[in-house]
Amino acid sequence: MKRTGIMNADLAGRMAALGHTDTIAVADVGLPVPEGVPVVDLAVVQAVPTFAQVLDALLDELVIDGHTYADEAAGRESGELLTDRTSRMGRARGVPHEEFKQLLGGCAFVVRTGANTPYANVILHCGVPF
Fold first, then answer.
1. What pLDDT sits at residue 1?
2. Could you list the residue range(s) of the whole structural domain that residue 78 is in?
């Protein structure tokens, strides 16, 4: 049994298989995920778990060298949260929300949170620890 870190077996296994340049998304409860992209669904009820809780747990375990977010998040709670964590997520790239949704098709998987706030979504770009 693991002592700390991500306990969800599906999520932990998928994270272990990631490589440099792979991308994953952390998504709110309503973000449409393209067909064929695996989803690790952590949502229990509205707002549980939060976007921040899931993002922080992932950032504690993954090497991230960049992130992509929807421009529409600027000035919203989700945008402020991403700004607060930029130092842990490397270079930032904003794109229109419609383009963001298209980029999901290239993700290794999407982690669905219970977040019910607008634009609480981010694509994380995996780096390497050396």
1. 86
2. 22-126
